[in-house]
Design goal:
mainly alpha, 88% helix, rod-shaped
Length: 293
């Protein structure tokens, strides 16, 4: 969901049902999810550079095969060595800023999940306490109603003065009305708590999924970095020792398929992470909009 739309909706529901703590959590959740989306965009930029590196490596292999077919070997594989130099110059597609952004986003999401878990436990405790008070109040009002009813019956049976009998009869109605009012109050409070819990739960699920996606992205990024480092080492080895170009290219051929597959897997996970964040943001907003009556 567009951030501008989110801000308009939150302004309309400024207090998120009169609860400042919940409103603060909702604001933090949307800020964190927006930064995670920015991280996914940063990852895609890195992957575009990785694909460019991949194309250079494929050119290296193509040129090498052509030059070998034409009888070239080692230092005479001019085009192959030029492409290897180009690959070395391209370097690591994952910048230091990318890793710093990842650490920041991951820490924010982990902190957010902890805050949501604490808030949810508080709400669960309040709901449990509310159920106890509902039972206690019902018992109190039933006892009071029965006591007043007995009083009115006794007053009538002993031929009490009309004023006492009228008073006893009049007390029955207020006791019943107060009981209904209290029950209505408890129900409204319970609905508000359940509504808040639903918002918290939707944010908690969204945050948990984001953390799992970030874990998968970290694993795949590390795997890609290992493969890339191996490719760069072989390229450097070939450039420093032209007589082992054949061996270096053979090693590069073994790694390039893994490099391509990991790049595409990482891209798919970045796309999945973005889609799930947007879906979770929409669910949270929907839960905020449908304020319990």
């Amino acid at each position: 969901m567009n951030q501008e739309v989110v801000k308009v909706i939150l302004d309309c529901k400024k207090d998120v049902w009169g609860n400042k703590e919940l409103f603060s959590l909702v604001n933090d959740y949307f800020d964190n999810s927006l930064q995670t989306l920015e991280f996914c965009n940063s990852l895609e930029k890195c992957l575009r550079r990785a694909r460019e590196n991949q194309m250079i490596v494929k050119s290296v292999i193509t040129y090498f095969e052509e030059e070998v077919q034409n009888g070239a070997e080692g230092v005479t594989c001019v085009k192959t060595l030029q492409e290897l130099k180009k690959f070395m110059d391209a370097g690591d597609p994952f910048t230091e800023e990318f890793y710093l952004l990842f650490q920041s986003v991951y820490a924010q999401q982990a902190s957010m999940l902890q805050k949501l878990q604490i808030r949810k436990r508080k709400l669960d405790k309040k709901l449990k306490s509310l159920k106890t008070w509902k039972r206690v109040s019902s018992a109190i009002f039933v006892a009071a109603f029965v006591s007043v009813l007995i009083f009115s019956v006794v007053a009538a049976s002993v031929a009490a003065p009309p004023v006492v009998t009228a008073l006893a009869a009049a007390l029955v109605v207020p006791v019943g009305s107060v009981g209904k009012w209290c029950n209505s109050l408890f129900k409204r409070y319970e609905k508000a708590l359940k509504g808040q819990r639903e918002v918290i739960s939707s944010m908690q699920i969204g945050t948990y999924i984001s953390l799992k996606d970030l874990d998968n992205i970290r694993v795949l990024t590390n795997k890609l970095e290992v493969v890339l480092e191996s490719l760069l080492q072989n390229a450097d080895f070939a450039l420093r020792n032209e007589d082992v170009v054949n061996f270096a290219i053979d090693e590069i051929k073994k790694k390039i398929e893994t490099f391509s597959e990991t790049t595409e897997n990482l891209s798919a996970h970045a796309d999945k992470c973005s889609r799930e964040i947007r879906r979770a943001r929409t669910v949270v907003i929907q839960n905020i909009i449908k304020k319990p009556e």
